[in-house]
Design a protein that fits this description.
The complex is a heterodimer of chains A (328) and B (327). Helices cover 36% and strands 20% of the residues of chain A. By secondary structure, chain A is α/β, with parallel strands linked by helices. Chain A has 2 domains: 182 residues, Rossmann fold (3-Layer(aba) Sandwich), CATH 3.40.50; 129 residues, Rossmann fold. A 7-stranded mixed beta sheet of chain A has the order 3-2-4-5-7-6-12, with helices on both faces. A 5-stranded mixed beta sheet of chain A has the order 9-11-10-13-14, sandwiched between helices. In chain A, strands 1-8 form a two-stranded antiparallel sheet. In chain B, the strands form 2 sheets. Chain B has a 6-stranded parallel beta sheet, sandwiched between helices. In chain B, strands 5-6 form a two-stranded antiparallel ribbon. Chain B contains 11 helices and 8 strands. Chain B is globular, with a radius of gyration of 19 Å. The chains are: A alpha/beta (328), B alpha/beta (327).
């Protein structure tokens, strides 16, 4: 084990996989010479050279399309979109091509690629740079989606993503880059897709999160413990495949569920998870499933009001209290 | 077609006859598709290639079999000329399990990796970045492949066209961009969609050399592509060909093409690449009229067999819905 940041864990995963497999290539805007807008690709150019680590023009749709073509042609590209917000420019290649080539060509090809996308709100970057678009991706079959919460998972999930023969959207939270944690040194350390992590066991309420939201859930659970309220925290790790059994199993035990999503609530993944809980264990519920979500507004700049739009630890604490006191 | 040019000796007779037969096969295939569509055997969108055969045949003949080919949604001819079995292509259009993509792709999404036919793409301009990516992979893997990317005039107004040409030149990738300018993006004529109507001139912003060729003349297309492919292969840089052509049918089966005058249509019909080549082959004694008839008969038989194969093929199993989404 080594202690490192989420950023360095991603960097390490990239380096290990590039050392292991010469077909892994990295490209994106400012990933080579500039070493990434968030410095995630630091040291890659110097170690692997400009053939395998390349800067791209600002052409997001084509970045994804080139990755699709390169993957169909035998490489394992890890492309970076500077932020998830720019993925909207690439939705044609993501949804119409990346997620479709295998199916519509009758299984005769595959697109083993990873698109890394830093994202999330909370840095006063305004409406166009603070979005959480995970539900957009989750709506579309044909690709996997990972969203690590911890440095260890950042490493293990990215390595799994790179070895996956399917296209993977790899979401990284910008506010987690400096978070620290123990990370296994083993270059074969892989975190499997479709298996959620129980970050904390508990009995009274199940908190379901992903990415940075899982960290907030952990913080809320620690605060609630002081009042004798025992929360189980489920970190989804991958949104596709979704480990439905993990949270249904937990809710069967606790009888209460609070889903924390950073994205907008309307037609968001929280609603989907709530529906799965209702379908899976309605008879075990002691209260309606509660959602804490990003507010359905474009993100304002001012930090005073921005934080009102993003789930916060105290909001989760309050949500749990409401769940426990609900008159059902 | 340049009638002053002698065909004899330009290429082996067998090669010239192969061009002719491939064009006839494509035409017969497409016209048969129209019949099957009218009967309701083929459903969905159906974009026929009739009129444009010289482009697919001439270009494909000039490429190596290891070279990649990508196309848009008007893709039957490209796949068949590349070697895809017409039976399996027809079965795909019929939506049958024996189809080239198991009946999951349909007319617009043919794919045949063993022929390096890397797909028909139905989002206008969607194939550009994928072609660049395939070319990048081939280049990294030292495979010595040219990637030939076919597209229509309409797609040149998509962002991906500009992004991909810029990228291909920036990374110096061996991509041969082949514009099939049939003058219409559905019903919108080139001059109503492109500020520069000389389409091949639009590559100057990306430092990619280009040329225009008569897309109704299979020999001209072949020669231009042969030169271009050699240039691309040698220099490992992209090149652009605009093949000026015409589709004899509407954009799709849903389009009666009322936006075109019959006079215009007649002019282009007189330039039909198939009878024009046939006439010259006969005039130069490379084949006789009976031989021409025999080729037609061979092609119609092949297409009839394809229709029979398709109609007798089983439908996909219900479980197939869930297969091939993930590896």
């Amino acid at each position: 084990m080594s202690e490192m940041t989420y950023r360095d864990a991603i960097n390490l995963a990239l380096k290990e996989e590039m050392r292991r497999d010469s077909s892994v290539v990295v490209f994106g805007e400012d990933v080579a010479l500039y070493e990434g807008a968030f410095k995630v690709t630091r040291g890659l150019l110097s170690e692997f050279g400009e053939e395998r680590v390349r800067d791209c023009p600002i052409s997001e749709n084509t970045i994804v399309g080139v990755a699709v073509g390169a993957a169909m042609g035998g490489l394992r590209p890890v492309a970076e979109l500077m932020t998830v917000n720019f993925a909207l420019l690439a939705m044609d290649q993501i949804v119409n091509h990346m997620a479709k080539v295998r199916y519509m060509f009758g299984g005769q090809t595959s697109a083993p690629l990873v698109i890394r996308m830093p994202g999330g709100g909370g840095s006063q970057l305004g409406a166009q740079h603070s979005q959480s678009l995970e539900s957009y991706f989750m709506h579309c079959p044909g690709m996997h989606i990972a969203y690590p919460a911890t440095p260890a998972d950042a490493k293990g999930l990215l390595k799994t993503a790179i070895r996956d023969d399917n296209p993977v959207i790899f979401l990284e939270h910008e506010l987690l880059y400096n978070s620290r944690g123990e990370v296994p040194d083993d270059p074969e350390f892989l975190v499997p897709f479709g298996r959620a992590a129980v970050l904390r066991e508990g009995t009274a309420v199940t908190l379901v999160g992903y990415g940075r939201m899982s960290i907030l859930c952990l913080q809320a659970a620690a605060l609630l413990e002081k009042d004798g309220i025992s929360c189980e925290v489920i970190d989804l790790r991958t949104l596709s495949p979704l480990d439905t059994e993990s949270f249904i199993g937990s809710v069967q035990k606790t009888g209460r569920a609070l889903v924390v999503e950073e994205c907008w609530q309307s037609a968001g993944l929280g609603g989907d998870i709530a529906a799965r809980i209702y379908e899976g264990c309605f008879d075990r519920l002691l209260a309606p499933v509660k959602r804490i979500s990003g507010l359905d507004v474009p993100m304002p700049y001012s930090r005073k009001i921005e934080k009102l739009c993003i789930p916060q630890t105290d909001g989760i604490v309050q949500g749990v209290r409401e769940l426990l006191t609900a008159p059902y | 077609m340049d009638d002053s040019l002698k065909l004899k000796g330009l290429l082996p007779d067998a090669e010239l006859l192969r061009f002719y037969e491939q064009m006839v096969l494509c035409r017969e295939f497409e016209e048969s598709c129209a019949e099957q569509y009218a009967k309701g055997e083929i459903t969905g969108f159906l974009h026929l290639y009739s009129g444009q055969e010289a482009v697919a045949v001439g270009c494909t003949a000039a490429l190596e079999s290891r070279d990649y080919i990508l196309s848009a949604y008007r893709d039957h001819a490209q796949a068949i000329v590349r070697g895809a079995d017409p039976k399996r292509v027809m079965a795909e259009l019929f939506g049958r399990a024996t189809g080239i993509c198991k009946g999951k792709g349909g007319s617009m999404h043919l794919f045949s990796p063993e022929h390096n036919f890397m797909g028909g793409y139905a989002i206008v301009g969607g194939q550009f970045p994928i072609a660049v990516g395939l070319s990048y992979a081939a280049s990294m893997r030292k495979e010595d492949r040219v990637t030939a990317c076919f597209f229509g005039d309409g797609s040149m107004n998509q962002g991906t066209f500009h992004e991909s040409l810029n990228w291909a030149r920036l990374w110096d990738l061996p991509v041969l961009f082949i514009c099939e300018n049939n003058f219409y993006g559905i019903g919108t004529e080139v001059h109503r969609a492109s500020a520069e109507v000389m389409l091949h001139r639009r590559t100057c912003g990306y430092d990619i050399p280009s040329e225009k060729v008569d897309g109704m003349d299979v020999i001209a297309v072949y020669q231009a592509t042969k030169r271009a492919a050699a240039w691309v292969r040698e220099r490992q840089r992209p090149y652009f060909i605009e093949a000026v052509t015409y589709r004899f049918r509407g954009h799709s089966m849903a389009d009666p093409a009322k936006y075109r005058s019959s006079a215009e249509h007649e002019v282009w019909k007189s330039r039909d690449p198939i009878p024009n080549l046939g006439r010259r082959l006969v005039a130069e004694g490379i084949i006789d009229e009976a031989g021409i008839e025999e080729i037609l008969k061979r092609c119609t038989t092949q297409v009839e067999e394809a229709v029979r194969f398709a109609s007798e093929s089983p439908w996909p199993r219900d479980e197939e819905i869930w297969e091939d989404i993930y590896v």
